[in-house]
Write a structure and sequence with these properties.
The complex is a heterodimer. Chain A has 25 helices and no strands. In chain A, about 80% of the residues lie in helices and about 0% in strands. Chain A is mostly helical. The longest helix of chain A has about 50 residues. Chain A has one domain: Up-down Bundle (Sodium/glucose cotransporter). Chain B has two helices and no strands. Chain B is rod-shaped. The mean pLDDT of chain B is about 85. The chains are: A mainly alpha, B mainly alpha.
Chain lengths: ~550, ~55
């Protein structure tokens, strides 16, 4: 935390505070608009299924890209370099283009046919099983608060740094502000605010990238300067070098620890995991027709490139800035590599770079950008957790009217927020990127084969889906607790039961993300069990797929 | 190579730009296609009404 205070010393907190206050008023207005336009449970959960494509794409992107992506992974790019650009490619190719074209359309159509309002309800109705709905709602209820708290920590850290307020206060203030517009505004409030925030994020990140290249003398010059620094990885960063780091503009050494982390956890786990995130999938059901999804592909692709792409580039290039520039750089930072300047904590690289490298005016805009990134992701996570608790779990056991359902969903949102805040207080620092990777990996292994089958495979059976989700979740958790070194060590269960860090210490297994084996296992179980169980009801399948799906 | 030290990283950067262009071209080309919202909404209304009628009976 020491460098936060060093960094925060130059901030004009009065101007920034006033700017944030005005921004909050804007958010309050949009939240209030959402509240006024929310008249039913369908409005609260699906924004009335009439969302504008710009709002939908911005909301999808802003919910997708959090401070974890900008600050957490941007910091990792600062430490390990631009190999992370493959994650940007996966985010755009799989998370936007593939997701909207191949998953979005069918989710919207089938969801509408089945009158589903949440992701668990969609899956439950598609496979005619309240049990599946409840299981998914429970998984969301347990795992999404973990991701929410990770996003919350990112936002609170940033607030702490730029506003120089106590971390715990920052966490509390942040959660309350987001809670207000989610609880009252529902998904309409969330998506309107997301659209504003998404716009701020694009402008802020684009400006950051341009200023960064300008400060470093141009695109090719900046890259070349970073390429020339490669020998420093061996000289100055022995820990990272041992992991496989060979420079900031080259891929890590093949089959090294960092190579496996980059490829299995980040590129595949996070990249493919985005397909099966309930808070994103539900947005496909908010639009009126395929036309809105087609338009959203255009907006969403540009959004991801300009936000995440810019963050990783700037994260890596911050090394050149810290190492060579002597203008406005604090004595304690000048001549250091980014990770050295940040005191070994990659989460601090981007905030430190912004503080040191950018003029005050841009700093203010970027502060709003990061606040927006955190708030927009958080609000969508709060909303999906609340709807799982309120709409899927509670409403399943008690039949209620439309207005009562909205009330129960709102209470569910409050409950989900409280859990995330509590986790935010107890989770250790430096968990931003790991937490995100865990969440995406578990989501992908548990939901993805079943979700894909719901959209494309008429032969998939209820029991097959049950078995697939159980295998995906079980193998993911087994991997996290007993095989994957980082999580197994911090969770401590393997050590407690067997007296060793991981069950199998043969390289590369302790560094292979559980997603790599749990997803194929989950898929294989789905196919095998479905073929050995009774064919689904033909009339139901016809109802799901009859509209040219 | 854009001054990058490795073909794989340069490929990643160019692929990001390439796939964004694919998204832009796809979105622009299909900007006005797929407007079936009213038809779907009408069908969903009809189905709900039929379901209610069946329950009443």
């Amino acid at each position: 935390m020491h460098s936060f205070l060093t960094v925060a010393a130059g901030a004009d907190t009065l101007i920034l505070g006033a700017l944030i206050a005005v921004y909050m008023l804007g958010i309050g207005y949009l939240g209030y608009r959402g509240f006024r336009k929310t008249n039913s449970n369908r409005d609260y959960l699906l924004a009335g299924r009439k969302v504008n494509p710009f709002v939908m794409a911005m909301s999808y992107g802003a919910a997708f890209i959090s401070t974890s992506a900008l600050v957490g992974f941007g910091g990792i790019a600062g430490e390990f370099g631009m190999g992370l650009m493959w994650l940007v490619f996966m985010n755009i190719a799989i998370g936007i283009v593939f997701a909207f074209i191949f998953f979005g359309r069918r989710t919207r159509r089938i969801g509408r046919s089945l009158d589903a309002r949440t992701f668990p309800e969609f899956m439950g109705r598609r496979f005619q099983s309240d049990g599946i709905k409840l299981f998914l709602a429970l998984v969301i209820f347990i795992f999404i608060p973990l991701y929410s708290s990770v996003v919350l920590i990112g936002g609170a850290r940033f607030l702490q740094e730029v506003m120089a307020v106590d971390y715990h206060w920052a966490l509390g203030i942040f959660a309350v502000v987001v809670a207000c517009y989610v609880v009252f505004g529902g998904l309409k409030g969330v998506m309107y605010v997301d659209a504003l925030m998404g716009t701020v994020m694009i402008v802020g990140m684009l400006l950051l990238l341009i200023m960064c290249y300008r400060a470093l003398g141009g695109v090719v010059e900046a890259h070349q300067a970073l390429t020339d620094m490669a020998p420093l990885a061996a000289e100055r960063l022995p820990k990272e070098f041992a992991l496989g780091h060979r420079g900031w503009t080259v891929m890590p050494e093949f089959n090294s620890i960092w190579w496996w982390t980059l490829v299995s956890s980040l590129m595949l786990g996070v990249g493919i995991g985005a397909l099966a995130q309930p808070q994103l999938a539900v947005r496909f059901m908010t639009v009126r027709s395929d036309r809105e999804l087609n338009r959203a592909v255009l907006i969403g692709s540009v959004f991801i490139l300009l936000t995440v792409g810019a963050a990783y580039m700037v994260g890596a290039l911050s090394n050149v800035f810290f190492f060579y520039s002597d203008k406005g750089i604090a004595d304690t930072i000048h001549g250091k590599l980014a990770i050295e300047a940040a005191g070994g904590n990659p989460d601090l690289i981007i905030p430190l770079f912004i503080r040191q490298a950018l003029p005050q005016v841009v700093l203010y805009l970027f502060s709003l950008t990061l606040l927006s990134a955190a708030m927009s992701t958080l609000s969508s996570l709060f909303h999906v957790t609340g709807s799982s608790i309120g709409h899927d779990l509670v409403s399943a056991v008690s039949r209620r009217g439309e207005n009562e359902s909205v009330l129960v969903t709102r209470l569910g949102v409050v409950f989900g927020i409280v859990i995330s805040v509590v986790l935010g207080f107890v989770l250790p620092p430096g968990i931003i990127a790991r937490g995100t990777a865990i969440f995406f990996g578990v989501c992908a292994a548990t939901f993805l084969p079943a979700y894909a089958a719901a959209l494309y495979w008429k032969r998939a059976t209820r029991i097959g889906v049950w078995a697939s989700m159980a295998a995906g979740l079980g193998s993911s958790l087994f991997g996290l607790f007993f095989l994957h070194a980082k999580e197994a060590a911090s969770l401590g269960v393997c050590d407690y039961l067997f007296g060793r860090g991981v069950l199998c210490d043969v390289f590369p297994w302790p560094y292979v993300d559980p997603f790599i084996y749990s997803l194929p296992l989950s898929l294989a179980v789905l196919v095998v069990v479905s073929f050995f169980t009774a064919v689904p009801d033909k009339n139901h399948i016809k109802k799901c797929f009859d509209r040219g799906v | 190579m854009l001054g990058l030290g490795d073909l794989a990283v340069a490929l990643a950067v160019w692929s990001c730009i390439g796939v964004t262009l694919v998204g832009v071209v796809y979105g622009a080309f299909n900007w006005n296609r797929g407007d079936d919202g009213d038809q779907i909404a009408a069908e969903a209304r009809l189905r709900r009404r039929n379901r209610r009628n069946r329950r009443r009976r």
